[in-house]
Amino acid sequence: MSQPAIIEALREATGEAHKALETDIDLFGRVAETDSRRDLVARFHRLHAAVEPAVEPWLKDMPGLEFSQRRRAEGIAQDLSDLGGRPLTTRPPHVASAAEALGWWYVLEGSSLGGRVIHRTLLGQGKDLLGLSFLHPYGADTGDWWRRFVEVLDASDRREPKARPDVLAGGVAGFRYAHEVLCGD
Ligand code: HEM
Question: What are phi and psi of 28, to 5 degrees?
Answer without folding.
Answer: -65, -35
